């Protein structure tokens, strides 16, 4: 089969690879329906994370069950499945607590920009739809496997509820999905920090009520002006930089909550500053598996359409162009079709 | 009148001071019933915070209303009152959100180890009891004005609820009160980290089910052993050092919560470590005013007795000995009677 391999920063190649096989009785192999490039794939692509030798890429996927291991009894070949970027047995103590992305047997997926993918702990990781969904639904279901689940988690961690005022820091695919999540959870006011007109438009279409284009001190001032001088009850940090975290912490009101879902790079939080702010902070890799049944249902009933974050569709073999387009911010998120 | 003044680290004097007066229409002056020395008073006493010239000390108090300003309509001279170490108008946006210790007009009290005290924003800050409580209740009500309110906030911030497993880091007065709070909130298992036998006894009397005497890596291992290998759902950090914060973060399970209520000194939290832990973090100066009516009721109905944290009683004029005894850990907390 063929799939994407990173060789060095900026160097993505579409190569012939070994066909994935069942290695453990708990594995499944799926045939990829659609896959995509994630904002977090850009960290190594941009050299912000070490590459350390050629390796396959991709952790977002929906597909068709091709083959299952002997311990996988709930899935059958031909089923359409949605998974998470983090595998989970869905039975360990952390899974039972709803933190499947901290499963005691977790593996982070990293071979999904390919025609076939081996899924460890398939029974706990994958959720099959009742029927094969129409093709037009696939992008939204693909979004659920990561960015929509991550946006939902941001809203959860930031304690968004009915009547909330929510600030979303970041207008990438996760930030945009976080707007959907805040809206679905009943936020009355959703303020999105964005400087890009096309992303602002999509944010508004998803439910944003206000856009703040300023950054830094000016951005913080603007948020304060919009929130009665004290800041927002919920802030969803969807970037992962020190600047974004600072923006988030200073945009929350005393007693407010920051949910941070962008993998932090060079972020340190000063204990005394956090203390006197009274702001709560919770983040991490999204427990997507917890949300899958609900989010799949919201997509299939056409209540939400996170598939709109894909503004570029390419054949899988042009995966390198997908990276380039996202790196140069020509695209929010690139969908790849095998 | 007379009161305590710090001149330099280790140098507390009991001196004649100006009688406090009504400076603003929203002020009250109270005659101190009992006051005490706080663990946080030891930071400047030990030179861990700059002293910067002689200044009065003390922020915990219960007393009798002596005089009120013209804008104070809900209090009358002679009433017995309990306040908070942080003043609050109890009407601003932060107060209405329940974060009175972040009142837009907050002042931190700092003149309470004295015979009389001026209380700014008296109407929002003070809660009067219906009758003057029996003298034996005064220590418990005094505890409510800070350490018991702070222990309650630790349990709140750590999301302790019915059936919780809670770890309390720190066996000072706040840590011991945090045990009371965890018990009252329905925690089934309360693990206290303590190496001092007398404090362990009091912790058990307050509801602790397990004691862990180990610290550092060993302490973390011991907590994991006691919590099914994954850590506790709620951790109450009642110290404020980097070591205690580390202990707390590593004692919480994925998805668990750390409430941190000791003022952090040289504490920095690594963003990526917090991210991958899935642990939520919230702290700050306790919003004692929010809890006062409830905690006063729990004391007066003899449901709780946080007054037991006072294991040394001295005449106010011997305040310096109170500091010494706490500094040398001969006392958990020194009660001072004018």
TrEMBL record, chains A, B:
Q: Which Pfam families match?
A: ADH_N, ADH_zinc_N
List each copy of the Alcohol dehydrogenase-like N-terminal domain by range.
Answer: 25-123
Question: Which positions fall inside the Alcohol dehydrogenase-like C-terminal domain?
Answer: 173-283
| SUPFAM superfamilies per UniProt | GroES-like, NAD(P)-binding Rossmann-fold domains
Instruction: Classify the source by domain of life.
Output: Bacteria
Cofactors named for this entry: Zn(2+)
**What UniProt keywords are attached to this protein's entry?**
Metal-binding, Oxidoreductase, Zinc
Instruction: Note the InterPro entries from the entry.
Output: ADH-like_C (IPR013149), ADH-like_N (IPR013154), ADH_Zn_CS (IPR002328), GroES-like_sf (IPR011032), NAD(P)-bd_dom_sf (IPR036291)
* Protein family (similarity comment): Belongs to the zinc-containing alcohol dehydrogenase family.
* Name assigned to this protein: IMP dehydrogenase
Upper taxonomic classification of the species? Bacteria, Bacillati, Actinomycetota, Actinomycetes, Kitasatosporales
């Amino acid at each position: 089969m063929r799939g994407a391999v990173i060789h060095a920063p900026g160097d993505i190649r579409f190569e012939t690879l070994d066909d994935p096989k069942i290695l453990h009785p708990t594995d499944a192999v799926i045939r990829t329906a659609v896959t995509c490039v994630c904002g977090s794939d850009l960290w190594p692509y941009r050299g912000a994370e070490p590459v350390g030798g050629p390796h396959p890429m991709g952790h977002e996927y929906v597909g068709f069950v091709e083959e299952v291991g002997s311990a996988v009894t709930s899935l059958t070949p031909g089923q359409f499945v949605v998974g998470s970027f983090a595998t989970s047995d869905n039975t360990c103590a952390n899974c039972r607590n709803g933190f499947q992305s901290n499963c005691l047997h977790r593996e982070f997926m990293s071979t999904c920009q390919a025609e076939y993918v081996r899924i460890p702990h398939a029974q706990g990781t994958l959720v099959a739809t009742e029927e094969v969904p129409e093709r037009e639904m696939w992008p939204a279901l693909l979004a659920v496997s990561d960015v929509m689940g991550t946006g939902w988690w941001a809203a959860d961690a930031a304690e968004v509820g009915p009547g909330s005022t929510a600030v979303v820091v970041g207008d990438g695919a996760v930030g945009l999905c976080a707007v959907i999540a805040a809206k679905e959870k009943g936020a009355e006011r959703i303020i999105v920090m964005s400087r890009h007109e096309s992303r602002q438009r999509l944010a508004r279409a998803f439910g944003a009520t206000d856009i703040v284009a300023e950054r830094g001190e000016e951005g913080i001032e603007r948020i304060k002006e919009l929130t009665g001088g004290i800041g927002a009850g919920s802030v969803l940090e969807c970037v992962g930089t020190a600047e974004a975290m600072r923006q988030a912490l200073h945009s929350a009101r005393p007693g407010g909550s920051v949910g941070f879902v962008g993998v932090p790079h060079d972020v340190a939080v000063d204990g005394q500053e956090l203390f006197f702010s009274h702001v709560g902070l919770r983040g991490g890799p999204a427990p997507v598996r917890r949300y899958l049944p609900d989010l799949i249902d919201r997509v299939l009933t056409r209540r939400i359409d996170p598939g709109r974050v894909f503004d570029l569709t390419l054949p899988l073999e042009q995966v390198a162009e997908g990276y380039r387009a996202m790196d140069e911010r020509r695209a929010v998120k690139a969908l790849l079709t095998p």
